[in-house]
Specification:
Helices cover 6% and strands 36% of the residues. The protein is mainly beta. It has two domains: 122 residues, Immunoglobulin-like (Sandwich); 294 residues, Single-stranded right-handed beta-helix, Pectin lyase-like (Pectate Lyase C-like). Strand 7 and strand 8 form a beta hairpin.
Length: 488
């Protein structure tokens, strides 16, 4: 699509001032080019499109003004964004990474996946590109829309962006109809070449319980959005390339605090869903602190060939989850939850404690087969740490003791782990399973010194524990009788 160009011009000295100074001053008019996406007059636009302005110089967000979208048929206002309203709390608030009480707004709010009241950024700027995020599900098929932007919403260089006024300077028409109701493959493309521009747009379209499995295919690109869905089943979300499909957002328990839903702090949330398969893309949270990348609850869910990257509580697991050939990167307590979780051939990287298993007696905890645990080189983004990380800890948490906490490593390779291996546990550890078999150094492949491990832990041997080793090497055993099958 061809961008529409709008001039942004500096004001010049008035003639009165020039004459008053008794000198002749010529201020050369300078223009900053800006291209629009969708282009002015574009057709076939997806209803979940962002509004993108690309400047010739880096813009900044102003302090006031509105962005408005009108239906061209009757000039009805269908959406507006007031830039004077803050998005939410910044990365730290009163020295905290999460507030003890919910701070009072008002803040920008939107509805994502049916969850109302989530904070979001109405405009995000990277370099020369300003992306406007309309509220979800405001645009309709086969309708033409007008975009207007007040002067002062964006500032480019030394000049104020004059804005976009009138009914003809930025219009576009949404495509005539959505995909078929019984479609089994939906394509997401940030450039507008697919069925939807955003992951959330595709998820909002897909039925909760389709008669057969539906695949959402994501083309290569950056998808900066909070993703949230619940009560869905038989759904595969597949990226074109694991490293080139990047879905993420700067979200946290500070930005979306405790007054919001308890799982609102993650970049990507799969809630109360069954037979979900995420494969071949990257999920990131761009903030530190209580800022998870993926929260996943439900049953019989799978992650394969995934990168899950961020700060504390990177991956939270509530319900049976199988993870294979995936990488999890965090800053501490990188995997938490009730499980059960079976990780096969995974790489876990963390500056702080790798895991916090919270499983009850009724199900297994976290099991890792043929996996790698590595402490990243360099300082932690959270600042100086007390020392090398632990494999896991499971202390009393607000009066709750995890008396059956379980984490088992089979044939793992370790680097940079504290020799004691395991940290603070429940007051009574007789039913806690902190077990290892054949843990070796990633550096020289030598067996770790089991004598240095926490007294509540156990080193398994083939002579004494062959059946236990075989059972915990079998995902069907760990996952309560479910045998995962990858959707190819």
């Amino acid at each position: 699509m061809t961008g529409f160009t709008i001039g942004i011009r500096k004001s010049i000295w008035s003639l009165l001032l020039i004459f008053a100074l008794s000198s002749f001053v010529t201020a050369k008019s300078q223009a900053t080019e800006v291209s629009l996406f969708p282009a002015n007059g574009a057709t076939g636009v997806n209803p979940d499109t962002h509004l993108v302005l690309t400047f010739s110089v880096p813009p900044t967000l102003g302090k006031s003004g509105q962005i408005r979208i009108y239906d061209a048929a009757d000039n009805r206002l269908v959406d507006s964004l007031d830039i004077s309203i803050p998005a939410g709390l910044d990365a730290t608030w009163q020295g905290q990474t999460r507030p003890s009480v919910a701070p009072q707004g008002p803040y920008q709010t939107t509805t994502i996946g049916g969850m109302a009241g989530l904070h979001f950024h109405p405009v995000i700027i990277h370099g020369n590109i300003a992306t406007i995020y309309p509220h979800n599900n405001r645009l309709r098929y086969n309708r033409t829309y007008i975009v207007q932007i007040d002067q002062g919403v964006l500032v480019a260089g030394n000049a104020r962006f004059a804005g976009i006024q009138g009914n003809n300077n930025w219009t576009f028409k949404v495509k005539q109809a959505p995909p078929s109701d019984n479609a089994t493959r939906i394509v997401v493309a940030a450039d507008g070449s697919g069925d939807f521009n955003t992951v959330q747009g595709a998820l909002d379209f897909v039925p909760d319980n389709p008669p057969s499995r539906v695949t959402i295919f994501i083309k290569n690109g950056d998808y900066e959005e909070i993703v949230y869905f619940r009560n869905k089943s038989k759904l595969t979300i597949r990226g074109q390339d694991r490293e080139k499909v990047r879905v993420g957002y700067g979200n946290s328990s500070l930005f979306n605090p405790p007054s919001n839903p308890p799982v609102a702090r993650d970049a990507f949330t799969v809630a109360a869903s069954t037979e979900i398969h995420l494969t071949n893309f990257t999920i990131s949270n761009y903030l530190s602190g209580q800022a998870g990348a993926l929260y996943i609850s439900g049953d019989k869910n799978i992650l394969s060939r995934m990168n899950i990257i961020r700060s504390g509580d990177t991956l939270q697991v509530q319900g049976r989850l199988y993870v294979v050939d995936s990488k999890i990167v965090g800053e501490g307590d990188s995997i938490i939850g009730k499980g059960p979780l079976f990780c096969n051939k995974c790489e876990i990287s963390s500056w702080g404690s790798y895991a916090w298993p919270r499983n009850p007696q009724e199900n297994h905890g976290f099991v890792f087969l043929d996996s790698l645990f590595e402490t990243p080189d360099g300082p932690s983004p959270l600042g100086p740490l007390a020392g090398p990380p632990l494999l896991a800890r499971s202390p009393n948490n607000h009066g709750i003791d995890y008396l059956y906490a379980e984490m088992v490593l089979i044939n793992s390779r370790l680097k940079g782990i504290l020799p004691v291996g395991w940290g603070e546990m429940a007051s009574d550890t007789k039913n806690v399973h902190l077990w290892e078999y054949n843990s070796r150094s990633l550096v020289d492949a030598k067996p770790i010194d089991g004598n240095m491990r926490h007294p509540a832990s156990k080193q398994l041997t083939m002579e004494r524990d062959a059946l236990t080793i075989a059972n915990y090497s079998n995902p069907t055993y760990v996952l309560g009788g479910w045998t995962p099958e990858l959707d190819q």
